[in-house]
Design goal:
Distance between the termini: 74 Å
Helix content: 55-70%
Structural class: mainly alpha
Length: 136
């Protein structure tokens, strides 16, 4: 009965070894002295870094990337359907039209909400140099 647990024990042992050995190697070959100056600089492809690495970026990058991924992945589902279009019949055609309808409704929603606009001119509490901008 205990011999059934031998593979589990081997895998646990290997997992521990694969976790501990890289940490030991890193400890042995990492520089422990002279941790100042160039050693603490952020490496950016050999260029001298300008400013902090903790820069706030516009959330529109994330929103547009997320929208792109959503629609891109959903459109990928159409390729297998197009390959076997003649064999699957009218029911599958209706199902794909419903799928495309849902995609179009989602696209129109995102478009009407303004999430595809790169520059948004709606400023609720504009001040300073933005106070005279006209919103759409």
């Amino acid at each position: 009965m205990y011999q059934d647990f031998l593979p589990v024990a081997v895998f646990i042992f290997l997992a521990i070894i694969l976790l501990v050995v890289p940490l030991i190697i890193q400890f042995l070959i990492s520089p422990r002295f002279n941790k100042k100056g160039d050693k603490l600089d952020i490496y950016e492809c050999g260029e001298i870094p300008e400013g902090s690495a903790w820069v706030q970026f516009n959330i529109r990058f994330y929103i547009i990337a997320l929208i792109f991924i959503i629609f891109d992945v959903e459109v990928v589902f159409l390729f297998p359907w197009a390959v076997v279009f003649k064999e699957i019949g009218i029911l599958a055609f209706v199902e794909v039209m419903i799928f495309l309808g849902i995609l179009i409704v989602g696209f129109v929603y995102v478009w009407m909400k303004g999430d595809l606009d790169w520059v948004k001119m709606k400023l609720k509490y504009a001040s300073g140099r933005y106070a005279n901008l006209k919103s759409k």
